[in-house]
């Protein structure tokens, strides 16, 4: 569906294609995100890493979701920064936990407004307002909002970026729903953040490939692609709901208010992971996602057929019984 027009370009070419800027503004603006300033990056983590390296210095603290996305946690460590855990629930970051992190000296906050990985939390309007109130107590803190699920999230967006904060960025990768090889993200932010991000980008790769920008624009604006993404969004919701229902029917508490993952608290991660593997299931041990939160396992539901959810839940219940008997969990 994309129609490439790869004319001769030079280092003096405009870094961002105006038509992709327009498409990004339409996409973000439809969810209430302010779109006066938009930019592109080679992916959401690319943008987050660039801004953290520009804004912070080694040893500085970053407020991170706990449990949170392991690649983000690893990125913070690789940059020489310190992760300060912020507990999450089904509505995302907890306000009082965020306040403690800010009082402990966090200079940036990295969070997900919906489809939180691995817990599945999503901001309600009330939670967004409560978090914004906390963040206004520290107006110089940079808020990096990673809406990675975006087009395949089945819940409304309540973005911190639309809460009138001083320093913020709202970023969306397209690789989650258009294909893993499309290493491109679009973002909206305040004017200072835009200047600092684009200034550093100019000194490294310069810009996101115009061929890639052409491709992303073509897909974002193609009606057939939009219809396919809409079907995928519904499919993920059905699959997540099926697993949550089957687990609940067996008395197993689990979390997954949105997104493509379900988080199940367990007493012994290794016992559950290895036990499920013996039944032919692969789930992720929670240790890689956790800073100070209790143990659990993450189940990715994107490829789980609803017909298989009952079998997985039954095997999970059996493994939990075995692990409790063996380990006293």
Structure characteristics:
single chain; 329 residues; Aspartate Aminotransferase, domain 2; Aspartate Aminotransferase, domain 1; 2 domains; eight-stranded mixed β-sheet; three-stranded antiparallel β-sheet; 11 helices; 16% strand
Can you describe what's shown?
The structure is a single chain. This protein is of the alpha/beta class. It folds into 2 domains: 18-221, Type I PLP-dependent aspartate aminotransferase-like (Major domain) (Aspartate Aminotransferase, domain 2), CATH 3.40.640; 224-327, Aspartate Aminotransferase, domain 1. Helix content is 43%, strand content 16%. An 8-stranded mixed beta sheet has the order 1-8-7-6-5-2-3-4, with helices on both faces. The chain has a 3-stranded antiparallel beta sheet with strand order 9-11-10, with helices on one face. The radius of gyration is 20 Å and the shape is globular. The N and C termini lie far apart (53 Å).
